[in-house]
Design goal:
Layout: E1 9-11, E2 16-20, E3 23-27, E4 34-36, E5 43-45, E6 48-53, E7 58-66, E8 74-82, E9 85-94, E10 97-106, E11 112-114, E12 122-130, E13 133-139, E14 147-152, E15 160-166, E16 174-183
Length: about 190
């Protein structure tokens, strides 16, 4: 079921954003981020997140488009219970290149990066949460969905899910999100790429 971006609730609403026929377009504010403690020692909860309520299990997908050029420029999807338990996954610029990045946080954040395909300035991300697990898949064109990560994720009676973007080192990154949908959790085999 496609979701109307106008129905979401902002955590750290960006100064500039709008919804039109192309989807949600936002421009990040200065020095925004989500991170908790690990390695760096700091906690940041200032990133932009447009949340939509879900049940205790779901699959959500979104298309992400942007020009990511500065260290830690990032955009994708967030799943959130509260400030201590959340995940963000999508594109991130690090070490001079674009990677698919995932941070899962349960009190402290972890971080993993991968490159399932080359063009990460226009792609889709899909997240499934069910039975204490998070399944993250990415797709270049929204048709074939290889697994990026399978990880434990805290059980909750409800979650919030939606687009997120951060620029820890700057501001003014413009990102477009479209084709956003939330549906019942998929139950296909992990090696089923549909």
């Amino acid at each position: 079921m496609n979701v109307n971006f106008s129905d979401g609730k902002w955590l750290n609403e960006p100064t500039r954003w709008h919804v039109d026929h192309t989807g949600l377009t936002l421009t990040t504010d200065e020095k925004t981020d989500f991170w908790r403690k690990t390695y760096y020692g700091f906690t940041r909860d200032s990133g932009h997140f447009l949340g939509f309520p879900t049940a205790d299990s779901f699959t959500a997908k979104v298309r992400i488009r942007g020009e990511f050029r500065t260290l830690y420029d990032q955009a994708g999807m967030m799943v959130r219970i509260d400030e201590n338990r959340w995940a963000k996954t999508g594109v991130e610029f690090t070490d001079g290149e674009l990677f698919l990045s995932t941070v899962i946080t349960d009190g402290k954040s972890d971080w993993s990066v991968s490159r399932p395909f080359d063009d990460l300035e226009d792609f889709y991300i899909r997240v499934t949460v069910a039975k204490g697990a998070m399944r993250i898949q990415a797709s270049r064109y929204g048709k074939v969905w290889p697994l990026v990560r399978l990880a434990p994720f805290p059980l909750a009676s409800a979650y919030e899910v939606g687009p997120t973007a951060c620029t820890p080192e700057r501001g003014d990154l413009t990102v477009n999100f479209s084709d956003f949908a939330i549906a019942p959790a998929i139950t296909t085999d992990l090696h089923d790429l549909s």
